[in-house]
Amino acid sequence: MRRIAVLMGGGKGTRFWPMSVEKSPKQFLKITSSRTMLQESAERMIPLLGEENIWVVTVRGMEKEVKRQLPFVEGRVIVEPVGRNTAAAIILSMRRLVEEYGDFLVSFLPADHHIKDKWEFQREIDAAYTAATADIVTFGIPPKRPEAGYGYIKFKREEEVRFKGVDFYQAEGFVEKPNRERAEKMLQEGNYLWNSGIFIWYAKIFLQRLAKFSPLFYNYYKELEKGKEEEVYMGMEALPIDEAFMEKLPRFFVAEANFRWSDLGSWHSLWEVMDKDDAGNATRGEAYFVDSEGNLVVTDKKTIVIGAKDLAIVDTENGLLVMKRDSSALLKKILKEMEEKNDKMG
Fold first, then answer.
1. Which has more confidence, 206 or 300?
2. What pLDDT, on a 0 to 100 scale, did the predictor assign at position 65?
3. Are 113 and 194 in contact (CB under 8 A)?
4. CA–CA separation, 283 vs 269, rounded Å?
5. Is 181 exposed, middle or buried (0-12, 13-18, 19+ CB in 10 A)?
6. Which of 156, 165, 264, 343 has a CA-to-CA distance to 195 between 20 and 30 Å?
7. How far is CA 95 from the centre of its chain?
8. At 270, which helix (H) or strand (E)?
């Protein structure tokens, strides 16, 4: 059966300001290597599927950059009229893919995640395609800390099946971004995984489950079949696929990922995956640290940091950021307030 991958590349990446901005969001940037996040995401899947089975869904205005970075996806770029979160993007993509292929297995993968163990990732994704012939599949990441900024998946460790040497567990449901106390308790209990945002399913099973458990979004799907795509799309609820669909399922598989993963959703998460000096300082560019520890510096200017601890210092043509390394939630809030203020000022 044909296997497809859809890279979801329409996000704004606001927590990576000032490097990531609306005209050049995170997925189009070279953050961890000489390749962009989008290019790295495609290159992980090509050995499994071939270039001809890679698709990208993105927001209007970004499609030209997608095609520039991935010329081989010409004719396989799905363009959202406007960003409406992942549920709408996936429903639109499924309608196009069913029209193109009829019957298929498909994975939906964020185009801006960092995955270090490429071969292990490919092995587990290959197994997940096989598992998806039996049930809907997602991946969970073993939590390294009580992270309040991630969603979690609860699973039954005693209920497992194996496909191609990879264990898949019966999931019990999602837990949305818990508070710190709850996150610490879940970490101790040991049967919770971070939600990776990676989903794999067999088209027929997905549409059957969508009709039964998410009739609103199934109706959107059926309306898209009739035409007037932009009108239908603009009327969709802007929900993540987790809330619109996955949370409603009585069962699905979750695999406990063994590949090293980061959503690179913040400067703190970038610092985590970078090489560091003995004091825990990481840098992209020429930086000198004196009596400083745990800092991240991203700059193309010579930079000296004295007596600082746990800061993110990012200097680009779009602006300068100096903040506590783990303050990304506050950064996102401030950027939103600045945007609203600018809108009011015209």
1. 206
2. 94
3. no
4. 13
5. exposed
6. 165
7. 21
8. helix 267-273
Nearest to 239 by CA among 110, 109, 85: 85
Reference 14, options 335, 344, 302, 294; nearest CA is 335
Nearest CA-CA partner of 174 in 263, 241, 236, 237: 241
Sign of CA dihedral 94, 3, 57, 41: positive
Are residue 226 and residue 276 in the same domain, yes or no? no
Between the CA of residue 73 and those of 5, 109, 115, 158, 330, what are the distances in Å?
12, 16, 22, 42, 37
> What pLDDT is recorded for position 46?
97
Q: Which of 46-50, 95-99, 328-332 is the least confident region?
A: 328-332
Which of 231, 263, 295 is the C-terminal boundary of a domain?
263
For residue 59, how far is the Cα from the chain centroid?
A: 15
CA 274 to chain centre: 19
Distance of CA 63 to the CA centre of its chain: 18
Strand order in the sheet with 282-284: 282-284, 296-298, 311-316, 319-324
What is the β-pairing status of strands 319-324 and 311-316? antiparallel
Question: Do 172 and 288 have their domain in common?
Answer: no
CB atoms under 10 Å from CB of 280, counted, come to: 15
Nearest to 62 by CA among 29, 90, 24: 24
pLDDT digits (tens, 9 = 90+) for 79-100: 999 989 999 999 999 999 999 9
Domain's final residue, options 263, 287, 313:
263
Q: Are residues 140 and 16 part of one domain?
A: yes
Domain identity same for 202 and 307:
no
Same domain, 141 and 216: yes
**Residue at token pair 């990776």:** 196
Distance CA(283)–CA(295), nearest Å, equals: 8
Residue numbers of the domain that contains 62:
3-263
On whether the CB atoms of residues 103 and 176 are closer than 8 A, the answer is: no
Asked whether 27 and 112 are in contact (CB, 8 A), the reply is yes
Looking at this protein, which amino acid is placed at residue 60?
R
Beta bridge partners of 79: 58
What is the number of domains present in the chain? Answer: 2
| CB atoms closer than 10 angstroms to residue 174 | 18
